[in-house]
Specification:
With 133 residues, the protein is an alpha/beta fold. The chain contains seven helices and five strands. The chain has a five-stranded parallel beta sheet with strand order 3-2-1-4-5. β4, α7 and β5 form a beta-alpha-beta unit. The longest helix has 14 residues. The protein starts with a strand and ends in a 5-residue tail after the last strand. 35% of the residues are buried.
């Protein structure tokens, strides 16, 4: 059973092997402890499509997915989205962050992000920042 869901920025840090503190914290986890949302995977795919060296970045992502599997966004995540969206409906941006947060809430796991301020108002979401470890 996973314990952590990586936000997009944490996945990028692991793909780039920096900052080192994130890699050290990840290394403390057991196999199966960490997943990424299908929403995060989609964001990473977009970033790769828009980058200067997509072949290299596809290889980095493929290696990351070997250690951090992609969790499917399912009906339970869809149900968890409504209260998160309602709690922050005045914010007309960050819709992908809201979906990622809902996914973590539905799985009852901690979201790991370097953008704590972007996620702090989402109800029932547990957050960690591995840069603060």
């Amino acid at each position: 059973m996973p314990r952590y869901m990586l936000d997009t920025n944490m996945c990028i840090y692991l793909m780039k092997h920096q900052p080192e503190v994130v890699a050290r914290r990840f290394a403390q986890c057991y196999v199966g402890d960490v997943v990424m949302s299908a929403i995060t995977y989609a964001e990473l795919q977009y970033g790769i499509a828009a980058c200067a060296a997509p072949e290299r970045e596809h290889a980095h992502l493929a290696m990351l997915v070997e250690d951090v599997p992609v969790a499917p966004f399912d009906a339970m995540a869809g149900i968890a989205y409504a209260p998160i969206r309602m709690a922050t409906r005045e914010r007309k941006t960050d819709h992908l962050d809201k979906l990622i947060a809902a996914h973590a809430v539905a799985l009852q796991i901690t979201l790991v992000t370097n953008n704590v301020k972007d996620f702090i108002k989402y109800p029932d979401l547990s957050i960690e920042n591995w840069l603060d470890s």
